[in-house]
Amino acid sequence: MMSIEPAAEPFATPHGAESAPIGPTRRGFVSGIWAAVPIFIAVIPFGMIFGTVAVEAGLTLSETMAYTMIVTAGASQLAALAVLDQGGPAFMAVLTGAIVNLRMAMYSASLAVHWRGVGMLWRVPAAFFLHDQAFALSMARYARADEPTADRVGFYFGVGITTTIVWIIATLVGALVGNSIPQSWGLDFVVPACFLAIAVPMIRGTANVVAALVAALLGVLCADMPGGSGLMLAAATGIAAGMATRRLMERRS
Amino acid sequence: MSTAEVWTLIIGLGVATYLIRFSFLGLLAGRELPPILREALGFVPVAVLPALVAPMVLIQEEEFIADPARIAGALAVILVCALTRNVVGGIAAGLAAFLAIGAFSL
Description:
The structure holds 2 protein chains of 2 kinds. Helices cover about 70% and strands about 0% of the residues of chain A. Chain A is mainly α. In chain A, helix 6 (about 105-115) packs parallel to helix 8, helix 8 runs antiparallel to helix 9 (about 150-175) and helix 11 (about 205-220) runs antiparallel to helix 12 (about 230-250). In chain B, strand 1 (about 60) and strand 2 form a beta hairpin.
């Protein structure tokens, strides 16, 4: 797979692409900003929940903000902080958070398929914004609209930067005022509602439905597995089930 | 937890998360993925998101709980999103169902 030809192109210049590396367009960036707006309804409460939890666990305001700005991955931030809070060592907390985020390696690979010809100048900052929302919205857009790569890169940055800024502000608000938000507002249900609303329109066809149902079932059954490994197992099994279903259906037709 | 532990977590998880995100964007840049891996990656969002959501709906404090409000809310999101593909409408319907059933079952 890694065979190196004598006259190979430089690493960042993909085979068959135009000579100049592709960068984001303003048009794509602006449409990404608008596409991100509906997601605020989930990012804001999730950020506020994280801010509240972090301060309650004993982090200072500056630690909470550094944590949220450097990691920018809410689920892993919560999981890793829980390990420290229960008296676990720091390296276990880091490992737990990293396992929760392993799914992002799959996001990274999925995105790379659509980013042929994009230079390292944009790939290096892009990786920083690769969270669930930026990935899900971008993949949905790429599947729906047949746009030039430069517009797609712009769209990704529009979503990624916007949601990251909103996430950071929401964390700050949560850390400052979180304790006074009543439970009855149902803020904790907003996060799963958002993930579902993003996922459902992407689930098309029998193979996708099987993958989603198997993953959901195993997600529940494996929920008490340590630090995010249940999520990985459930997702991997769902993917395998979806691929098997597709093959069974192809064989039958 | 000590200040040193907190900063170890912040820096350690920050670096680890960045490297995970950069992995294929940086390392596989411009390389062809094997078809089977590409097919598997197509299933990633439809598998990961449900696996993430289902425990949020059905498990509270490490116990399986069939909370009618959460289940009604999740079903409302699924129904509205499947019929209309409208993300905001789905979230709004889900929250409305969650709060309405929650108010009844109190």
